[in-house]
Fold each of these.
Amino acid sequence: MSVTSPMGPVMLDLEGICLNDHERKVLAHPCVGGVILFTRNYETPEQVSMLIDEIRSTRGSDLLITVDQEGGRVQRFRPGLTCLPAAASYADSYRENTARALEQAASAGWLMASELLALGVDFSFAPVLDVDCGISEIIGDRAFSDRPEIVSEMALAFRSGMNRAGMAAVGKHFPGHGGVALDSHLALPEDKRPFEQILARDLLPFRKLIDAGLEGIMPAHVVYSDVDSRPACFSLFWIEEVLRRRFGFAGAVFSDDLSMEGAAFAGGYAERAKEALAAGCDMVLVCNRPAAAEEVLESLRDWDYERVRRKRLLAMRARRRVERSVLLGSAQWRRAVDDIEQLNARV
């Protein structure tokens, strides 16, 4: 029996390829608003579709289902889906034929989105808008380029493909993770560059995509010490002043995973969640720590969650879906796969 509940502010994960009884109870909590799936939740397209159906039948249609499906190193669902190239793989094509590279990026965005939508996923946390500065291994080839104008062009094309398929996009990691060497999964990186330099370089792709109507953004667990002592994910300056007021961003803001070491400065998990929400995040992610996710849910039971935040999150739902059999039988899918196979052959 389907249960319909208002969309809450917490996104959590699951243990395996099907729901267990305890997870069904957790999903019924009023503060749950989304589920992010990982490789451990995926075996085949048919299996994950059944899992997603089970999640929705437990919670209701307002729940957001998402995954990290950028391509390259970060593609959680693989068997039965198209293997997508890393963002940096488009660089050679761009140098040889810019128009063709942009077509390929749009094809990749459409293909990624279409295949996920056919499984029941709402959106992927993509594209990466970080500018590669040559020092971040955690970003590296996940960035389209070391030139902000090229990142902007390629990301705009990738997002256009996603939108054409019926999927909203999430740009990450605001205001830019490419300028630090440390991995925010393992430590809290500090970017000491002046604000003007970040504005002129790292923030350019974010501004371009926001102007084009970008639906979602994920801030970084990075401290930009020239302007604020708090990581961007917990910073009123970055989220409310820069993102909302100066850039006019009206979409949804998702925290990066609060289980990452870059979030530990805020204290326990409940404190992390409350501080991220207070700074302007619309939804917080708590991954790979089931007990911590439940702690956060209980701590937010009486949270005053504004209606406008729910509206921004509801806009992240899938806009349309195509049956998987219909998708795989379409000429558009075949052309997109051919485009991506040409890119993969060059890597």
Amino acid sequence: MAVYTDITEAELGTFLKNYPVGDLLSYKGIAEGVENSNYLLHTGSGSFILTLYEKRVERGDLPFFLGLMQHLAAKGIDCPVPVHQKGGDMIGELAGRPAALVTFLEGMWMRRPTVQHCRQVGEALARMHLAGRDFRQVRKNALGVRGWRPLWNLSRERADEVEAGLVAEAETDLKGLEANWPAGLPAGIIHADLFPDNVFFLGGRLSGLIDFYFACTDLFAYDVAVCLNAWCFERDHSFNLTKGAALLGGYVDVRPLEPREISALPILAHGAAMRFMLTRLHDWLTVPDGSFVRKKDPLEYVRRMRFHRTIRSAAEYGLPS
């Protein structure tokens, strides 16, 4: 459930008076996502998404996130566009939370992505990377390789509660990633969280990208690696080489990977699996059962880490030669 903060119709009506969107007709909470409170609104001028930013999102990061969406939309990327208040601001306040209103994006996310979906995701990711090259704001990736050790330290002592031997396994992997993490690769604005529930399709075609609240400045190829983890594994945890080839083929058709990015792809994919294992592990061990935060199984990404550990070249992910 992604509604942590309830709002009343009266509160919302007062909030919307600051926006040129007409009168409120209806609203409902959206049970998707895990970070913020989201509502679908219908007003006299159309449909919008209202987001109330909860404690995990820093208010100081909001100009970056919202400015990026505005920039990408102006560059032709299909994504939500922030609605400015009548005074020009993009950030308001509602129920004691920072809040923003963005345009509604038609479509739905694919719970069982196909090869064709994966190819379109690769193409869209590459177009997003190119479109963000002249975005002037910078945001450090707080969940990049330097952030993994502090996160691991929060869970390390209890990790064997999830699976026996996980402490030693994850510690070994983390040390190897820290020692060998690539530097100097092409970098810029990345999405960093382009999972299936953040990509909409309509009539079989990709209709847009959403949820830019992990976006940051980091390696482009790392973003590709995140997508390999998110889109190309099946429910039995096996890697689907055909989906990997489609995603990578779609990407390189728009933005060819440099040889050094190709060489680094196995360690980047291993690192991406580590990043999501660590955040899941922390929530798994610390979030109480029955909480609004939907906990996800960290062992899903432990299995991905084990797979990436066996990979020696990007060809094993399906990268076209």
Amino acid sequence: MEVKFLKAGSGDSIIIHHKIYNIVIDGGNDSKYLLSEIDNIYKNNEVINLLVITHHDDDHIKGIIDLLNHVSESKYDINRPFIEKVIFNSPRLILGKLPKDDNNLLSYRQAHIVEELLQKINTNWTQYTDQSKPIVFEDLIINILSPAVEDLKEYSLQKGAYLTSDWKCDWKIPMWRLEPYITDKSQDKSISNKSSIVFQISCDNKKLLLTGDVTPGRLQTILDQLSAENGGLPVQYDIVKLPHHGSYRSLNKSILEKLKCNTFIISTNGKKYFLPNKRALLKVAKYSKRINGGAANFFFNYEETLNNIEIHTKEKIDYNFIVTPNNENYGIHFRYS
């Protein structure tokens, strides 16, 4: 299994390749590297077996629009559909129609464009929730942990979906000064983020948790259940993508105490809402459990984002963490045998 966290602007774009299977999750709002990866899939005489749009915020869906236009314009000559299956909890799919008077808002307008493009290339899309059956590609298993059906219905009736932030930049503040302010008093409760798809992917004796932009309340519900199934112990993962591009408002102590992981992904170019928050790194370093007592390793898909955050050697020693920039020009690449 290979996992790539692509440079995708301020958003997420993830590609998983296993044997002959390709899974694309989100497109960010900069599709340069995504479209290059899509061309490589075609050149290898393979297809996108699964395309997932976790939710329709601009920094997750804009690159999908570019991808679908690219597929349509390229007219890939292949004996089967180039995109086999799509998961997209679009408002029209939930309601059976486009929400009234909302098609002029950015998020809904982009969702509508995606629906039209999927119809143009004759590809259907499916609604998935935490009640859906796992998706299986031989020994690769995808479990959908969120959203709940009732959250999707509530979201589909909202007046738009926008990224939330307190707009406070903490990049230049030493961690010892931030520590008294990493309480959980300010938490993201937006229904748009609560409706985000959350995955657990298992393959090659590895487990990944991909959280989209999920809210801490919803993520806590998920981890409470997983921990209970694990005998009350923290749930172990090889990789956790931090929700909402490393926002401290998307994490709390209760969540992190139920996670056991050494590798955390931060996916953003740092040009929107001062994300990631340095306070989020501090929360993870202080409260998450580590495999074999190791350090928390924060992987950044943009080295320039890491460079913008002032992290000193003493801070890494004091709080037992390390930071790692992208290991490929296109982002982060993990390869498991």
Amino acid sequence: MSDPQRTYLDFERPIAELDNKIEELESLSNGETGVDVAAEITALRTKSAKMLADTYAALGPWRKTLVARHPNRPHFRDFRKAMITDFAELRGDRCFGDDRAIIGGVGFFRGRPVIVLGHEKGHDTKSRLIHNFGMARPEGYRKAIRIMEMADRFSLPVLSFVDTAGAYPGVGAEERGQAEAIARSTERCLTLGVPMITLITGEGGSGGAVALAASSHVMMLEHSIYSVISPEGCASILWGDSTKNKDAAVAMKITATDLKALGIIDEIVPEPVGGAHRDPVQTIQKSGDAIERALDKFSDLGSKEILARRKARFYAIGRSEV
């Protein structure tokens, strides 16, 4: 049987079949049959590893979307636990309530005091319901604004981790000013006098992502995505057919490679072969190293220079030399 903790995507079926065969042979060799299958196991492992590497080296935009949504990818709670010490969570927007789709607080990143914000999707059915699958309501963005204002007041850099399909589209959220809350959160990111470093860890969906990602330095994990709308939503609007999601994924330029070339993001953090879900520890370590390098670039800058650089960064997007 395959590892119950490992979830294979549809395009990984040939790899899953090889891995199942390896496990069957390992069970056979551990028995009392006296059959020596070590050589065959070694050959199959080599074949599986090569197939995995070849598959992930040639992922298209739609397959990257599936990887970005993989349920076993490290979530904000994993990054926070591994990276941030002495974390103290701050709750509530001081207006309506506390939104669990966005988590924020203060702590230390490798010895530096920081403010931390992130979307949390949850890791099982119960926690996904608690965190609303990472889809924040207005009070989530207003909580983020409150915490960012604290960062400005105490001159603390902000680290944000983005992983959301988008803001929650429910009636209650709209009644409480969803669009206004997202706009003000985005504005607060842009006006911070402290460095803000963002890592897109899975999905960076629509304004719900931008509200925590209008930063000084934006990074993406290699197989994450960042888009104005989901491929399915785009296909429904443009073609009236959500099954054209693959075409939409290609047209929207949602991959880290495309977005880096367009100047929308600044850096790509490599993932282990087979995606972040296969080695979360290595993924988080590389992400932490990238965040530390990014923070170092702003360590000697004053608030005016930090603001000027962020302003120049966003003004440069979409411009071309004539």
